[in-house]
Amino acid sequence: MSSTASGKNGTWRNWGGNVVARPAREVMPASVDELAAAVRRAAEDGLKVKAVGTGHSFTSIAATDGVLIRPQLLTGIRDIDRDEMTVTVEAGTPLKRLNLALAREGLSLANMGDIMDQTVSGATSTGTHGTGRESGSIAAQIKGLELVTADGSVLACSEKENPDVFAAARIGLGALGIVTAITFAVEPIFLLTAREEPMPFDRVLADFDQLWAENEHFEFYWFPHTGSTNTKRNNRSAGPRRPVSQLSGWVEDELLSNGVFQVAQWVGRAAPATIPAIARISSKALSARTYTDIPYKVFTSPRRVRFVEMEYAVPREAVRETLRELKAAVERSGLRVSFPVEVRTAPADDITLSTASGRDSAYIAVHMVKGTPYQRYFTTAERILTAHEGRPHWGKVHTRDAEYFASVYPRFGEFTALRDRLDPERLFQNDYLRRVLGA
For residue 398, which of 318, 337, 312 has the smallest C-alpha distance? Predict the structure, then answer.
């Protein structure tokens, strides 16, 4: 699988295949100066500008009919500061390359999401996250940021330098400028012990607060049409390192999680009536296992089955009620859902438009395999999630607009005021930003 979204005959498609754009031109700058020049030239030509990473967003956040900036040449580590315990990387660096490079240096991020194909700037700009009791999203680990603004100038920000920009630009949606470099907090590499085990849905909900409190990183997958979940608990460990063996890793991660799962999706698409039976088999196929490894090998896993996804953050205390309502709605609706629902958490952070801004959050993600009609399921889920003041992930399918966001983000006006200052002519505007931030 190529992780990069494809472009043929001047068209660009995202990873999920649900967004297509035809930019007037594509630019692949090899330096920050070249990028700044491309931004100034676009403004002179009256064209809008968007940067795109690997296209893992399911929204049209990166789509443009203007100038599409591809940051593939803006990659690599600029600096590792062992006194400050930070790493500064170019914006186009894939998370995988960052993780491998840090591991070689005996360093690691504190937390990460479950895939690492995305660029660092694409992942942080949309609020990509994993799960954590104390450690937040990838953007919450940012200590400094450099971006090219609408007038072609390069702006640096941190808690000390341009702090108002720093508060917003860590999850900037591409609305404030084009990120060129990011400085992350890092720490000495550590080991995590992962414990994966099936658990009944009702028990997970009954014990949710305890499971959350007792584990540094807790998450679970619920298989619709069943009362089953698969839980995963990741906690720091003194070792020794006991990785998943190559054979069982292949069986669990490739054969079951990707191979058999792909076949199950094909069967489900051809004969939707079989989905509940497949779900029951799938939920029993994954057995309990425990392994210990360095962070990125525990946090991330390959995702080869292409899908479309909607994910909302609800207040953590609302997660049980929300999931019970979702389960009842799926059972009532006659929907056939072949993809597990993923549940994770994040602590409150101080980023203006972070889905966890100012509140401890739980994430509920619903998926449908690429090519199957997802609207009815997502509409059903969204109705429940928004009733609990849910905030949708910026890079995943949702139908919310600026009016809604102003009601669920107390600091929404702070972000739009900063955007008015940094991009008064709306050089970085596109249809998606017009909808979510207002005209």
Answer: 312
Q: Decide: pTM greater than 0.90.
A: yes
Cβ atoms < 10 Å from Cβ of 280 = 15
Please check whether residue 300 is in contact with residue 355, taking contact to mean a CB–CB distance below 8 angstroms.
Answer: no
Query: What is the spatial distance between Cα 361 and Cα 351, in angstroms, rounded to a whole number?
Result: 14
Tell me the C-alpha distance between 34 and 27, whole Å.
Answer: 9
CA torsion sign for 203, 207, 208, 212 is negative
Q: Taking a C-beta distance cutoff of 8 angstroms, is the pair 365, 114 a contact?
A: no
**Spans of the chain, pLDDT less than 50:** 1-4
* Phi, psi dihedrals of residue 181, rounded to the nearest 5°: -155, 150
Q: What is the pLDDT of residue 325?
A: 98
How far is 386 from 379, CA to CA, in rounded Å? 10
Report d(CA 112, CA 259) in Å as an integer. Answer: 25
Do the beta carbons of residue 121 and residue 179 sit within 8 Å? Answer: yes
How confident is the model over 26-47, as pLDDT tens digits?
Answer: 999 999 999 999 999 999 999 9
User: What digits encode the pLDDT tens for the residues 55-99?
Assistant: 999 999 999 999 999 999 999 999 999 999 999 999 999 999 999
- DSSP characters over 3-37: -SPPEETTEEE-TTS--EE--SEEE--SSHHHHHH
Angstrom distances, CA of residue 319 to CA of 111, 308, 357, 376, 391: 22, 22, 17, 22, 13
Q: Which of 113, 116, 127 is nearest to 172 (CA)?
A: 127
Cis peptide before 240 (omega within 30 of 0): yes
The answer to whether residues 393 and 332 touch, using CB atoms and an 8 Å cutoff, is no
